[in-house]
């Protein structure tokens, strides 16, 4: 039941119980004494890590920095076992956080928010769920993640397929058996390149359908280095997080301030070989400063990776198919893998280039491309997500004058700082489009938003403010700035989900903020220090 006057049922409704939702709930309830209701579609906490249980699912951030920093006790007590945390371990961590801070009592699971309407008459949000909840709250805060709406491409005949099929982002909780089966994987993004080697070890035969060849770096995954954790990380966690907060990508690393073009070829090779040997995201995040902005600099790194692919893959025809040449390195989400390229040396693994021979249809017993009919017992769609905006637009969110977010964002998302969108008062987005979010180590960006939103809500309460709304001019200026900083980068030179290019009909707009985590934090702080410049506080 909704409250009948302007006394809300809750101070805040939070959508989602992943990193963002859990952190926001704890912060508002424990530090600001607010009443909070969280709605979560899943049956448990975890968000992206609840759903993405596909084989090989693992995070690309090193575990020691892929966590909350708000509690020193939590940082000291939790012990990661993997250098790169695997999905079950991250899920255990988030369950531990939920238990340790007694968060579950404010979370309603198995509940999808279907609509949210700003009631101008009472200055409250009215939120409706698929479980027949209808509640009001002063603030509506989304912690719905950036890659939470799975994209299963509409391929003719999928309904007729008689085998099993799965999307990596909605992987079953029950064990999926690959042994003795002929398996197809469609897609070679992060989810594909993580799951392909694992599936290949079990399946009788694996066929990978690749549209765009990828650059990927070996993760050099290992168990966590205990000595490093105990001697270097734990005693210095404050400094480590502080460095990450002011860095470009939310990692405690320093970029090489040299240009790739100013050093000699031998020095460049030495740097790339060292990065390749160390592996992981550091290969990119500590590399030369102009890899992301200068095509010639980028080419040196791209060619280095192509050379590595030629060295690893035995069959010349497969090597050719795997060669990424149509986009710069890092213009799509950088990938890190374990044995990805080497997997194509297995006898039971085959690569199909669907750029040259597109999939025509799915048949009851397999997949038919322009050139060939394949038989499968299982199809795995590693085909990604309607990223950054998909989950927002699937909810019917309405602001002033019944304006729907679908209409407001019909030409692409428009936000101020990725935190608010004009005409939707008191709606806050954690890692919304227009913030660094997916270009960064997510927990660091999420915590920055949580801190900033909590600071603003505190200010609102202290000053008896009823509504906060991004000014349309501030929003327009921010959208231009987001585009302006993206324009000279390599990101504009690939058909990536950052640009919405993976979803037919989606406006081609670069959605995240490429200016860097530290720069963004500085801007957010400045705006707050200037009395929340660009926001209408009514
Ligand atoms: P993705 O990066 O969007 O990759 C999807 C793959 O499917 C691409 O190879 C794409 O080809 C292909 N594809 C899409 N539609 C297709 C179609 N209609 N026909 C044939 N192929 C199609 O998705 P993802 O791998 O799930 O990863 C999404 C994001 O989630 C990542 O970029 C990352 O941010 C996050 N993630 C992170 C991790 C990690 O931390 N390790 C793991 C998984 C996911 P094109 O390239 O040609 O579009």
Structure description:
The strands form five sheets. Strands 1, 2, 3, 4, 5, 6, 17 and 18 form an eight-stranded mixed beta sheet that branches. A five-stranded parallel beta sheet has the order 7-16-8-9-12, with helices on one face. It has a three-stranded antiparallel beta sheet with strand order 13-14-15, with no helix packed on it. The protein is of the alpha/beta class and 538 residues long. The protein is built from 17 helices and 20 strands. The protein has helices at residues 19-32, 48-51, 72-77, 87-100, 190-202, 226-233, 237-245, 265-278, 282-285, 295-312, 316-322, 340-343, 390-394, 405-408, 442-462, 472-486, 517-529; strands at 10-15, 36-39, 107-108, 113-119, 124-129, 134-142, 164-167, 182-186, 205-210, 216-218, 335-337, 349-353, 359-363, 366-369, 373-375, 378-381, 396-398, 427-429, 468-470, 535-537. It is 32% helix and 16% strand. The radius of gyration is 23 Å and the shape is globular. The model has no long low-confidence stretch (mean pLDDT 96). Helix 1 packs parallel to helix 15 (442-462) and helix 15 (442-462) packs parallel to helix 17 (517-529). Residues 58-60, 147, 153, 168, 186-192, 194, 211-212, 333, 354, 382-385, 438, 497, 502 line the site of NADP nicotinamide-adenine-dinucleotide phosphate.
Q: What labels describe this entry?
A:
single chain; 538 residues; alpha/beta; eight-stranded mixed sheet; five-stranded parallel sheet; 17 helices; 32% helix; globular; binds NADP nicotinamide-adenine-dinucleotide phosphate
């Amino acid at each position: 039941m909704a409250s009948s006057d302007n006394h809300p049922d809750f101070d805040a409704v939070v959508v989602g119980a992943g990193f963002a939702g859990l952190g926001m709930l704890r912060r508002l309830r424990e530090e600001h004494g607010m009443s909070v209701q969280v709605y979560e579609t899943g049956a448990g906490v975890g968000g992206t890590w609840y759903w993405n249980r596909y084989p090989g699912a693992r995070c690309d951030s090193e575990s020691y920095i892929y966590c909350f920093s708000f509690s020193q006790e939590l940082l000291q007590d939790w012990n990661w076992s993997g250098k790169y945390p695997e999905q079950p371990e991250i899920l255990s961590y988030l369950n531990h956080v939920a238990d340790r801070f007694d968060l579950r009592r404010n979370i309603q699971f198995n509940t999808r928010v279907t609509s949210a309407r700003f009631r101008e008459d009472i200055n409250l949000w009215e939120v409706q769920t698929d479980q027949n909840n209808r509640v009001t709250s002063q603030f509506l805060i989304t912690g719905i993640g950036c890659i939470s709406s799975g994209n299963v491409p509409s391929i003719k005949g999928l309904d007729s397929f008689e085998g099993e099929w799965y999307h990596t982002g909605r992987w079953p909780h029950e064990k999926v058996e690959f042994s003795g089966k002929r398996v197809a994987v469609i897609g070679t993004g992060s989810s594909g390149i993580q799951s392909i080697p694992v599936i290949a070890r079990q399946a009788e035969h694996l066929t990978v359908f690749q549209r765009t060849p990828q650059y990927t770096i070996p993760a050099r995954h290992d168990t966590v280095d205990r000595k490093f954790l105990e001697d270097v990380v734990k005693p210095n966690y404050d400094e480590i997080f502080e460095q990450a907060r002011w860095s470009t990508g939310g990692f405690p690393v320093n970029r090489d301030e040299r240009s790739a073009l100013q050093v000699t070829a031998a020095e460049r090779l030495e740097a790339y070989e060292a990065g390749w040997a160390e592996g992981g995201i550091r290969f990119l995040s500590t590399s030369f400063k102009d890899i992301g902005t200068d095509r010639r600099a980028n080419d040196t790194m791209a060619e280095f990776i192509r050379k590595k692919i030629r060295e690893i893959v035995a069959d010349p025809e497969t090597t050719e198919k795997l060669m990424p040449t149509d986009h710069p390195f890092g213009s799509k989400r950088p990938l890190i893998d374990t044995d990805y390229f080497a997997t194509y040396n297995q006898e039971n693994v085959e690569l199909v280039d669907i750029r040259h021979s597109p999939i025509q249809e799915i048949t009851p017993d397999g997949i038919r491309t322009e050139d060939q009919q394949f038989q499968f017992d299982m199809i795995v769609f590693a085909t990604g997500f309607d990223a950054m905006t998909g989950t927002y637009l699937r909810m019917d969110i309405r602001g002033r004058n019944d304006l729907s977010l679908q209409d407001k964002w019909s030409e692409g998302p428009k936000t101020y700082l990725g935190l608010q969108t004009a005409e939707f008062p008191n709606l806050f987005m954690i890692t919304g489009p227009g913030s660094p979010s997916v270009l960064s180590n997510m927990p660091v960006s999420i915590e920055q938003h949580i801190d900033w939103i909590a600071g603003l809500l505190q200010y609102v309460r202290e000053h008896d403010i009823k509504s906060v709304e991004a000014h349309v001019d501030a929003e327009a200026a921010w959208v231009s700035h987001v585009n302006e900083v993206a324009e000279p980068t390599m990101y504009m030179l690939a058909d990536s989900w950052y640009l919405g290019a993976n979803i037919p009909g989606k406006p081609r707009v670069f959605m995240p903020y490429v200016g860097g985590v530290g720069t963004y934090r500085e801007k957010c702080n400045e705006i707050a220090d200037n009395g929340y410049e660009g926001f209408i506080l009514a």
